[in-house]
């Protein structure tokens, strides 16, 4: 089988390039994971969702993917947080590893093949540092070990920063034992009250960057295909990973580098100082997980994304439309046999458009646009079929439904039973808008009585009364259902 032609934007070359993995048919992916000192925020969630979709799509296209995403469980932030809570740093970190797993599951992320922790890989880390010291690219200084940036001529090839500017901007902090301002710590001598391990340079702990070099080499080899992370990791973290890994192995580290854009909150940068950091788990109490994924995916992963109440509400209405369509289609065709025969129009074209969009640097927004066409045709075929042949319509709907399942596996959307998703959505809206469900049920029952008695004026009056309460009713083959209507301002 020929390899599908996927292109991706490579931060290293600043160009879109065809994906040509080192081993044909197999893609090895490393993504820098969370530092587990707190709950992740929705900016982190966007990054991990983007790579979740990259991995799912590569698998959908037939690649064997090895996906590694680490946990940084040894870090200054963890030590600081542990001092504040009075916990052991290791205990605090493992608590937030569990919290991250819960969050990732809640957001329908696939579990990576390997999720290594720094604290489990100290021997690998020491061994790569030793290699760098032996090669003269790193040096020991009073129990610390530093990478000598001047000994690695390719430094800053990813970030394209100017070394003189960098040197001018870097301070040597008190207590630093480094020779030159740009040199960075691979190993830090132990300080009282901090976790530490034995090493050839005495007790200490790894610096931040070295962990990714050590763990990627362990699970993917010294050279692999795709390295991903958020944009703010390019410098210094990814730059330093390249320097360490290529300094030690003499081989190219990652062939392709992918970076996910920033997420703003209502037009402002998300930051602790502005007090506008939104945790994923808090967001998920207000917005459906798939609607949040839909919101993330409706902007290209490399572009900035603005998290705003209006945009989130729109994403939920869009998901509601999709699920209402799927419920109608399932009611019409699920489990039925319409025989073999031709299909109406060219229903397969939407999936092809979706694939073409995703082949082009994982362009999910264009993929979602193809999906709009697919759902539009489903609605047309269920509501106003342009042809009389019921078997033809049924077969076509079944083919479209099957394509939705394929897309669902890639985007992590529509993974729920439509009726269940819609019910959950309704329950949330009922709580938010303070709607009395018993009263709604009573008015619907009255309306059904009026319709039975052919008192259509009364039935219409009851429909209007419900509408005034924010309730929209739908008469389906399975009876009357209802949903919470969009508020007038948002529907406009
Ligand atoms: Zn990393």
TrEMBL record:
Reaction equation(s) it catalyzes: tRNA(Cys) + L-cysteine + ATP = L-cysteinyl-tRNA(Cys) + AMP + diphosphate
Renumbered ranges of motif 'KMSKS' region: 269-273
Binding-site residues, ATP: 272
Required co-factors: Zn(2+)
Record Pfam families: CysS_C (PF23493), DALR_2 (PF09190), tRNA-synt_1e (PF01406)
Coiled coil: none
Protein location: Cytoplasm
EC number, UniProt record: 6.1.1.16
Alphabetical list of CDD domains matching this protein: CysRS_core (cd00672)
Domain of life: Bacteria
Gene3D superfamilies the UniProt entry points to: Cysteine-tRNA ligase, C-terminal anti-codon recognition domain, HUPs
Keywords, comma-separated and alphabetical: Aminoacyl-tRNA synthetase, ATP-binding, Cytoplasm, Ligase, Metal-binding, Nucleotide-binding, Protein biosynthesis, Zinc
GO function terms (MF aspect): cysteine-tRNA ligase activity
Annotated positions binding Zn(2+): 32, 212, 237, 241
UniProt-listed SMART domains: DALR_2
Cofactor note: Binds 1 zinc ion per subunit.
Domain Cysteinyl-tRNA synthetase class Ia DALR: 353-422
Motif 'HIGH' region location, chain numbering: 34-44
Principal location: cytoplasm
Subunit: Monomer.
Family note: Belongs to the class-I aminoacyl-tRNA synthetase family.
Protein name as catalogued: Cysteine--tRNA ligase
Species, as recorded: Hyalangium rubrum
UniProt gene name: cysS
């Amino acid at each position: 089988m020929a390899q599908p032609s996927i292109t991706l934007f490579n931060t290293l070359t600043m160009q879109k390039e065809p994906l040509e993995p080192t081993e044909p048919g197999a893609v090895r992916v490393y993504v820098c994971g969370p530092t587990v000192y707190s709950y992740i925020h929705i900016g982190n969630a966007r990054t991990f969702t983007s790579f979740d979709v990259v991995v799912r799509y590569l698998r959908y296209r037939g690649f064997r993917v090895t996906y590694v995403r680490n946990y940084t469980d040894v870090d200054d932030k963890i030590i600081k947080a542990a001092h504040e809570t009075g916990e052991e740093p290791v205990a605090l970190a493992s608590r937030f590893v569990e919290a991250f797993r819960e969050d990732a599951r809640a957001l329908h992320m696939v579990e990576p093949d390997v999720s290594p922790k720094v604290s489990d890989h100290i021997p690998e880390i020491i061994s790569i540092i030793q290699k760098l010291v032996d090669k003269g690219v790193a040096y020991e200084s009073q129990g610390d070990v530093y990478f000598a940036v001047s000994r690695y001529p390719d430094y800053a090839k990813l970030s394209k920063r100017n070394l003189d500017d960098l040197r001018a901007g870097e301070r040597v902090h008190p207590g630093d034992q480094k020779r030159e301002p740009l040199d960075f710590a691979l190993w830090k001598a132990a300080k009282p009250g901090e976790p530490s391990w034995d090493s050839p340079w005495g007790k200490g702990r790894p610096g931040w960057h070295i962990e990714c070099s050590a763990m990627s080499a362990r699970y993917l080899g010294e050279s692999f295909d795709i390295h991903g992370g958020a944009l703010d990791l390019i410098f210094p973290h990814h730059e330093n990973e390249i320097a360490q890994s290529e300094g030690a192995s003499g081989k190219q580290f990652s062939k392709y580098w992918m970076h996910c854009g920033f997420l703003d909150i209502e037009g402002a940068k998300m930051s602790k100082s502005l007090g506008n950091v939104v945790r994923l788990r808090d967001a998920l109490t207000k917005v459906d997980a798939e609607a949040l994924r839909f919101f993330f995916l409706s902007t290209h992963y490399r572009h900035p994304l603005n998290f705003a109440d209006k945009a989130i509400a729109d994403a939920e209405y869009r998901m509601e439309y999709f699920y209402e369509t799927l419920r109608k289609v399932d009611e019409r065709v699920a489990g039925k046999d319409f025989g073999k025969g031709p299909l109406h129009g060219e229903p397969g074209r939407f999936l092809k458009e979706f694939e073409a969009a995703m082949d082009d640097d994982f362009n999910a927004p264009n993929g979602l646009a193809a999906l709009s066409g697919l759902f539009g045709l489903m609605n047309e075929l269920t509501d106003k079929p342009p042809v009389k042949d019921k078997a033809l319509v049924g077969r076509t709907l079944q083919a479209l439904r099957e394509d939705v399942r394929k897309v669902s596996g890639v985007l992590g959307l529509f993974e729920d039973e439509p009726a269940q998703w819609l019910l959950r959505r309704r329950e949330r809206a009922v709580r938010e808008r303070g709607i009395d469900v018993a009263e709604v049920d009573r008015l619907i029952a009255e309306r059904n009585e009026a319709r039975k008695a052919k008192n259509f004026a009364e039935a219409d009056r009851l429909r209007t009364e419900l509408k005034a309460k924010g309730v929209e009713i739908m008469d389906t083959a399975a009876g009357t259902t209802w949903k919470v209507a969009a508020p007038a301002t948002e529907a406009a």
